[in-house]
Specification:
By secondary structure, this protein is α/β, with parallel strands linked by helices. It has 14 helices and 13 strands. It has a seven-stranded parallel β-sheet with strand order 3-2-1-4-5-6-7, with helices on both faces. A six-stranded parallel β-sheet has the order 10-9-8-11-12-13, with helices on both faces.
Length: about 350
């Protein structure tokens, strides 16, 4: 299989794209790939590390505040369309896949004009503008949440889940001693990501002292930006602080409750691992999509949500204490997460792509 794949801007787009590539490689080892990304976003650094051929195009999102800047945006888009048509003609793909971000617009539209089969994947409950726009051009749309279906042409939609969930199941669990944690104590994992993390960290720093003498342990992942400041603080012995964890999923497999943001990939891993969670959605994202992502779990009684504006006093400690030793509550959350699972997401995507190609 010859595949052009495009996704850009955030890890929430890039890592699902890589998961799709990994599944195609597993199924068809002789497949050839070309990744098209932006010239100045994180995919240009991440993707080449995996040995995947990478082509970059200069493209920007529309600026709603500084309208004059959009002349440059339009000019770059015209150039990107020409560039993408040439890339696609030269590579001759069987399928062109878009996994989110404005970079996918010229890629998918060019493929459509050239008669190449197209597939896009949406990770969030409320889709991004690029995918909503492209839904009119593509052959097939994969969605991670059932609630996304209302935003797309129904005859094109297939519920695939997020391909990162299948990768999560394959990751080898960590050794808790790596983080000076006990094997015989329950673990609560705090990980907030980078966007708006400083404000949450300010609250969590005050909260950590309240975990003194608890019969469970805390692993608090601060993020690199705040770590140097936070590590100077004298926390209780059962609170372990680290700046970053490589492959956090391996720790999630040893975790009893996670306190986290509501990024689509994170939630897909929570669902796949049936991990009880307390979700604090970031209010700093487009269209408040993390809140809407979290609602899919909360409405199914598969997670508890605390909005950032409600972070006061000992609310986190009380919420954790109300769950962690309640076997019935934990089991109920796990069973409800199981009902949301699409554990073979990447395989479903591969199977649908294969059928799409075979329909030529």
């Amino acid at each position: 299989m010859r595949v052009i794949i495009s996704a850009g801007g955030t890890g929430g787009h890039i890592y699902p794209a890589l998961a799709i590539i990994n599944k195609i490689k597993e199924k068809e080892p002789n497949s050839e790939f070309l990744y098209i990304g932006t010239h100045d976003r994180m995919e240009k650094d991440i993707v080449p590390k995996y040995g995947i051929p990478f082509k970059q195009i200069e493209i920007y999102g529309f600026n709603r505040k500084k309208l004059l800047k959009n002349f440059k945006v339009i000019n770059c888009l015209i150039k990107a369309n020409k560039q993408c048509r040439k890339i696609i003609k030269d590579f001759k793909p069987d399928i062109v896949i878009g996994v989110g971000g404005y970079v996918t617009v010229p890629v998918i539209k060019s493929a459509k004009k050239l008669g190449v089969k197209t597939f896009i994947h949406e990770q969030n409950s409320v889709p991004g503008k690029a995918n909503v726009y492209l839904s009119n051009y593509v052959d097939l749309i994969g969605i991670s949440f059932k609630s996304s279906k209302q935003h797309f042409p129904k005859n094109k939609v297939v519920l695939t889940g997020n391909p990162c969930s299948e990768d999560a199941l394959k990751v080898k669990e960590c050794n808790k001693q790596e983080f000076n944690l006990s094997d015989n104590k329950k673990l609560v994992l705090f990980v907030m990501g980078s966007l708006g993390a400083s404000k949450v960290n300010d609250f969590l720093v005050k909260t950590m002292s309240l975990f003194n003498n608890k019969d469970y342990e805390i692993l608090y992942v601060t993020g690199n930006g705040d770590y140097e400041k936070i590590k100077q603080i004298n926390f209780p012995k059962n609170v372990k602080v680290v700046p970053y964890v490589d492959k956090i999923t391996r720790v999630m497999k040893k975790t009893d409750i996670i306190v986290t943001r509501a990024g689509a990939s994170t939630l897909s891993e929570i669902i796949a691992l049936k991990l009880p969670s307390i979700i604090i959605p970031s209010p700093y994202v487009t269209n408040n999509h993390q809140y809407k992502n979290a609602l899919d779990l909360v409405n199914n009684k598969a997670a508890i949500m605390i909005e950032e504006k409600d972070l006061k006093g000992d609310i986190i400690v009380r919420t954790i204490d109300g769950i962690i030793n309640d076997k019935i509550k934990l089991e109920e959350m796990k069973n409800n997460l199981k009902s949301l699972q699409v554990s073979n997401s990447a395989t479903i995507i591969y199977d649908n792509i294969k059928k799409l190609i075979d329909r030529k």
